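MODEL INPUT / OUTPUT PAIR
PAIR INDEX: 1
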Amino acid sequence: MSLTTGRALSICAIGVALLLLSKAPLQGAELTPATIRLDFIIGGKHAPWYVALEKGFYAKRGLNPTIQSSTGSADTVRAIGSGSADFGFADIGTAIVAKSRGTPVEVVAQFGYVPATILWRDEGVIKTIKDLAGKSWAISPGQAQWFLMPAYCRINKIDFKSIKIQETAAPIQPAAMVTKKADFIVMYRASNDEIAEQAAAKVGVKLSRVFMKDTGLDIYGTGLIAKDDD
């Protein structure tokens, strides 16, 4: 993780405490429980949230947070909208789609740009992003990539409808790709695509990748999501 990324994530984590401050007593009172739902399986990019917890930053603001993992941004956004979590760290595009469908959420802070990475086996079946057409994609509907990929394909003139969707639980997507049960996956940088690299290395498979941000989908990435009570 770069120093810039680490600082930005630290600011985002501390921002949760500040946003909850209006609801929390400061001194001499019981800590206010708060649930923070992250966007995926715990990885390196989530470290600042736990550092803030370990160093007592939340407690100093009167908070007693529970930090939860997730199966994807869509699940996190749903949790915020339903009230089962207080704040979420999730993909902004996914939150916008959910908002348009009636989920009562709002984006209260923005962090970085979409860090999605398309990965495939480096064996000649896929040579460029144009070759994604007609190939199989291991993906779960709960992930932000579910919503990002159609837009990415449209930008790059790839026939999205020709892509064969293989609904696969997020934790086993890298294994599905390296064992040829799927042709490609879309992971997030700063922890999750490294998991794919590790899975590939175990079986001697080399991977190729492209970053969505560098190939047309240069949009806002993760944000701090809260429930819209209006």
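PAIR INDEX: 2
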Amino acid sequence: MSEAAAVPAKHLGRGIVLIILAFFCLALISAFAKAVAPDVSSGVIVFFQYAISLVVLMPWFVRVGVRNLRTHKLKLQLVWSIFGLGSQFLLFVALTTIPLLDASLLANASPLFIPLVVWVWQKERPDAWLAFTLLLGFVGIVLILQPGGASRIVSLGTPIAIAAGVCSAIGLTAAGLLQKTELVPRTLFWYFLLSPLLVSPISFATWTMPTPRAWLYLLLIGVCMAAAQLLTVLAYTQASPSRLAPFNYSVVVFSALIGWVVWNEVPNLLTLAGAVLVAVGGILSTQRPGALHIDQST
């Protein structure tokens, strides 16, 4: 049975609403992280993002049962966790120096990098159509970089955000391989269990006592991450990932609006053009037959 036929088409609208809500939660996470960055380090933010999410999702994991949470793919779980949390850490670092739209867009450009990761990892060379979509997206990244602008050159935030996108692509490729054999609750359990453990040395080394305001932001970040995961799981019960993939870039729209309203970050025409090309390239790369469709909300 094909992926499109696996879920009734009449539920597509419900799936679209759920996936847009999931990526709205991800946009909120980036906004809260940008707001709390002056008070706590990126390592501390990442730690509480995963630790709080683990607590929030624990009733679901308990209901699934210990037997269904056991994994025989621990190495692959580690790869996903290391690069997934690495992506989040780099995104939060980038948010301290560049606009919310730029950071969110580049960190979520993983569909452009996933085919390259698969090429190296699984020796699957991109075809001509996929190469075109990647070229389209990378032209968009160049426009966002705006090499002619001196103010863009001095900011380390942009290459850091790109590195976040690369880490996300590696982690999501591992997640895609896990989804072939592992239950969704199992992969999420190990992701949220391993991630705070792996990042804890950095968070402890950079620890400063959060203010009450900072604690509130950390709590909201963790709750939003858990909500994003649950909404994504629900969305995929209503419609196939391939049909919902174009709406993953709703996070870019939400980030642009939040950045404009809260921080008065108004992107110029080149940035907007670059954002469109990155989004179009990423969407087209996921719509080709046989494309790797994985949960990008992690």
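PAIR 2 NOTE: Residues 212-238 form the longest helix (27 residues).
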